[in-house]
Design a protein that fits this description.
mainly alpha
Length: 198
Amino acid sequence: MRRRYALILGLLVLFCLAAFAVLFGEEVFQNYTAKTQRNIELKAHHEFIQSLRKNSSRLGAFSTDGCSGGLSRAWRALSDRFPAFAKTHEKAPPWETCCLNHDRSYHSAGGATEAHESFALRLSADQALRTCILATGRRRSADLSATFGLSEDQIRSAYEAIASAMFDAVRIGGLPCTGLPWRWGYGYPPCAVTIVPN
């Protein structure tokens, strides 16, 4: 009887420890991951600022491709091919203005002069992109709800998915000093050192 009681108590303790690890371990893991990503990104921002200083880099003329990754171009092609699509969804992504504002920040690196400032400005620009897309969804939800027979909550949920996907994409693909044409600070000449994300 004693042995059985000890076994049950031991299993209960293991269950509690496992539950604690699941509940609090994920948060600890996420904090560790965020800190690691921040440290990697700060290295890239440091290289970017050093490159600007070392090369006395001047900002070039502003250019944009709209929403990167070929999204604006594909949207226009789809609109040209299917006029009903363009009538409902416009000739360009309805949130393209959000992308243009984002590109302006990325082009000039927000005017940053220090690595930590550059990091904060990039994060702010990416968050503003997400917020702008969500606002576009709220603005369009009533019309799209009537057009597609979906609830406004469903339309807003779709825009939340778009906003999250675009936020994740720019966080991953927009680091400075990658040599990519849409990188943070793309209005400046490429960094002396190119950093390739892991």
